[in-house]
Design goal:
- It is a single chain.
- With 804 residues, the protein is α+β, with helices and mostly antiparallel strands.
- Helix content is 51%, strand content 12%.
- It has a 5-stranded antiparallel beta sheet with strand order 1-2-3-5-4, with helices on both faces. It has a 5-stranded mixed beta sheet with strand order 12-11-13-14-15, sandwiched between helices. A 3-stranded antiparallel beta sheet has the order 6-7-8.
- Helix 16 packs across helix 20, helix 23 (546-563) runs antiparallel to helix 24 (568-580) and helix 26 packs antiparallel against helix 27.
Length: 804
């Protein structure tokens, strides 16, 4: 180790270990170090020697400490500041991903929608920092880090710190480093004015936007001094003449940011955020990649099934898509099996009503869901899952006794929520499922500001009544456990949950945006961070490539757990990302085991747990987990779908068919997506006549754009020419965007084209597709098992699961 890292290592002390040297940047030399205490990697930036004499070190440290107070989902925080042999350094977390500069220099085309999202994230970070009195002064692509579908701004406060010169120093001003980066510098910065406010950052944001859309900065190709003069005296080129395809309002916003006079620019970053949000029409909201224009949606029970032109599914994956859209995929932390709950107090919280007004649907659903979670956290009380109870929404024909029988509960809690101006009226009633008799009811009328206390009152009174009936339970847990005392943040959280539970791409992305807004209100809102992780987890593979989605899952889950280590879904999300994408199997297993211990019946925990067991080569254990999930969620079409898929994979075709028929019974709109695997199971059993008949029904139900999903079944029936035609359509999509390569490989394998099948499996391996862990048990690959290349692939995946 040379003198420079040796000196820095000595200054950092034993708690940090320098691991690699990333070289010098514009203002600093950059190292990666490992934090031994928190077991994480950090970045250490050591100022260049020629800056030391020009910078007031005491003021530098003070300014960095001020910036370190910034806590925002789109800001990479500063962790510490120090000095090594007279040279200041500062540290920050190591962010998985790449910088916007890397993306632009790599000539990777950014779609308009993706660019809007990045600009929106940066503007959101600026708005928060400006409100705290911190101006960045050096906004540029190099300081914008991209991880997943999220952008984060780094080096807040550093440019300001470098502008605090030692008495008599002039060198830094002469080089321009104290001012920022000349290509992105606002006129007032270029002129050396001492009074700089947030509007200078918005000018730099406009320059960055110009470069993102045009490929170069407004005054590109000039010397440093000529660039500074141009910012002060010249009007930038009109972007509307260079990118005629941009929305007019977007072009106008960029040009307003580039106004010479700060008074003519947007005055606050929050206004820029609002304008960018308004530019995101429904198509843009659900399409943060360049192929989004190809996406079409078909209505299914007020939600959408992903169009074949962009779906990254071929056979079974399409069913999971549809089920996600049909029903919620979250459950509260209940006891793991009904047999274990026979002696426990049990209650079902039904969806709250409120008339035909859908404005407050999110609030009604949210109140019911939060009551489930609050009551379910009490030892000795089993709460029926959200998925099963919400499957009964609108079933006014069912009696309380019938509800109790279907959900195997002793008590039923139901209610209504109505708004009267700024006040809410909530009616709740607890009934016995044995005879339908009322046990307790109450009307609440309150200002929305008192929502927390009212929800706590309801849960406490319900538990008090249940104690009387059951002679014992532990102390109730109040809704303060949700993790925030900010009512607006909580309201945004409920709106995000409402979108999350629709499980379509657009709503999932909308949920991330709403969680983000909640975090802007309360950056320590752990459940909002966990919600972001869950949304990314369900976007992964099907809607978003693993390399983008799983780093975002991991980052959000780790933020959640740093604030609250008891959130089971965050442990499960982190564990899923670690073992299925990062291939850190031992650590991923530990996380999922922790999640199971905390909340065995959470759907996200169940899904992660069974996937881990399959990867470990324990299909019998995975089956027990899925059976337990179905017992806890008897009315969930999603659990039936997952169980049917698993049974089909292991070759238990009759049992799989029974589960898929249950899906048709529970969710008629999903019929084509349950009938297709039925046809495939019939074909696999050798019942070709029945399989052909079932497949004919599916053809008639699906629009032509979804017929490529039939390629695997068509190949199984011997319809080779049809199968190859459908396969060509799917491969054409794969050239434009990420699709799960193993799904194409399956069709080639059934068609007997081993070379093509292995080639597509190799692409799955390169993409770290989580499905590959199921290769060893999936019967669909039996035709490839004799091939040594397939054997090698299975062994490679086994090696991953056994790595320390």
């Amino acid at each position: 180790m040379s003198e420079l890292p040796n000196n820095l290592q000595e200054s950092l002390g034993a708690n940090y270990r320098i691991e690699r040297d990333l070289g010098g940047g514009g203002m600093s030399h950059v190292f990666v170090a490992h934090d031994e205490i928190l077991d994480r990697d950090i970045v250490v930036k050591l100022l260049h020697r020629d800056l030391v004499d020009a910078v007031d070190l005491e003021r530098f440290s003070r300014e960095v400490r001020l910036a370190a107070r910034l806590s925002h989902p789109h800001i990479v925080p500063l962790l510490t500041a120090g000095e090594s042999y007279g040279r200041p350094f500062y540290t920050m977390p190591l962010v998985d991903g790449e910088s916007l500069r890397d993306r632009l220099d790599g000539h990777q085309e950014l779609s308009i929608a993706e660019s809007i999202r990045i600009l929106r994230d940066v503007a959101s970070a600026l708005g928060y920092a400006h409100a705290q009195g911190v101006v960045h002064r050096d906004i540029k692509p190099d300081n914008v880090l991209l991880t997943g579908d999220s952008a984060a701004v780094t080096d807040f406060g550093v440019a300001k710190a470098l502008s605090l010169l030692s008495p008599g120093a002039t060198q830094v001003t002469a080089t321009g480093l104290s001012l920022g980066t000349p290509a992105y510098m606002a006129p007032e910065q270029a002129a050396g004015e001492s009074s700089i406010d947030g509007r200078a950052d918005l000018y730099a944001l406009g320059v960055m936007a110009f470069e993102m859309f045009c490929g170069h900065c407004p005054f590109d190709g000039r010397t440093l001094q000529a660039t500074l003069i141009a910012h002060i005296t010249e009007s930038p080129p009109d972007i509307r003449s260079l990118r005629v395809d941009l929305p007019e309002r977007l072009s106008e916003l960029i040009m307003r940011c580039l106004a010479k006079d700060p008074g003519e620019r947007p005055q606050h970053a929050s206004g820029v955020v609002n304008e960018l949000d308004s530019l995101a029409d429904p198509t843009m909201k659900s399409a943060f990649h360049s192929t989004s224009a190809l996406k079409q949606k078909q209505k299914v029970r007020n939600t959408r099934i992903v169009d074949a032109a962009v779906a990254s599914v071929l056979v079974v994956a399409a069913f999971i898509y549809a089920a996600r859209e049909y029903s919620s995929a979250t459950t509260n932390a209940t006891e793991s099996s009904l047999s274990a709950s026979a002696s426990a107090v049990s209650v079902a919280v039904l969806p709250f009503g409120g008339g035909n007004d859908t404005t407050d649907s999110y609030l009604r659903e949210g109140i019911a869901e939060q009551l489930m979670e609050a009551i379910g956290r009490v030892r000795g009380v089993r709460v029926a899952s959200r998925m099963s109870t919400f499957a009964l929404e609108g079933r006014s024909d069912m009696s309380t006794e019938e509800v109790g029988k279907k959900l195997n509960v002793q008590n039923v809690l139901e209610g209504t929520v109505r708004r009267d101006g700024d006040r809410l009226r909530v009616f709740v009633q607890l009934s016995s499922a044995k005879d339908g008799g009322g046990l307790w009811s109450k009307n609440y009328e309150f200002d929305k500001a008192n929502l927390f206390s009212v929800q706590d009152s309801i849960s406490t009174e319900v538990l008090d009544r249940l104690r009387v009936e059951s002679a014992g339970s532990s102390e109730p847990v109040t809704l303060s456990g949700i993790g925030t005392h900010d009512l607006e943040a909580y309201d945004l959280y409920l709106r995000a949950r409402y979108q999350f539970n629709k499980f379509d791409e657009g709503p999932l992305r909308e949920s991330i945006k709403l969680y983000d807004e909640a975090l802007q209100r309360d950056t320590r809102f752990a459940n909002a961070w966990s919600g972001i992780a869950s949304s990314w987890l369900f976007l992964a593979d099907d809607y978003v490539a693993p390399r983008i989605a799983y780093p975002a899952v991991r980052r959000a889950a780790e933020q959640a757990l740093s604030l609250d280590s008891t959130i089971a879904d965050a442990h499960a999300s982190r564990g899923s990302a670690l073992f299925s994408y990062f291939w850190q199997f031992a650590e991923g297993r530990q996380e999922i085991e922790r999640a199971v211990a905390l909340a065995p019946s959470s759907f996200i925990v169940l899904l992660s747990h069974q996937a881990l067991l399959v990867a470990e080569g324990k299909p019998d254990s995975a089956l027990r987990v899925l059976r337990s999930g179905q017992e806890s969620d008897p009315l969930s079409p999603l659990n039936a779908l997952l169980l049917g898929r698993f049974l089909g994979i292991v070759g238990r075709y009759d049992d799989a068919i029974a589960q898929y028929r249950r899906v048709v019974e529970l969710a008629p709109p999903l019929a084509p997506f349950a009938l297709l695997p039925i046809a495939e199971a019939q074909i696999a059993e050798g019942n070709l006549t029945e399989g052909e008949s079932t497949l004919k029904q599916v053809r008639e139900m699906l629009p032509p754009t979804l017929h490529f999903l039939l390629a695997y079944a068509e190949a199984g029936l011997g319809h080779t020419e049809v199968a190859y035609t459908l396969l060509a359509q799917y491969e054409a999509v794969a050239k434009r965007q990420y699709v799960r390569p193993e799904l194409i490989a399956m069709v080639y394998a059934r068609l007997g084209n081993r070379d093509a099948a292995i080639a597509w499996l190799d692409k799955s391996f390169e993409a770290h597709s989580p499905y590959l862990f199921a290769l060893a048990v999936d019967k669909q690959w039996d035709t490839l098992r004799p091939d040594p290349r397939f054997v090698a692939m299975v062994e490679r995946m086994r090696a991953v699961t056994k790595a320390p």
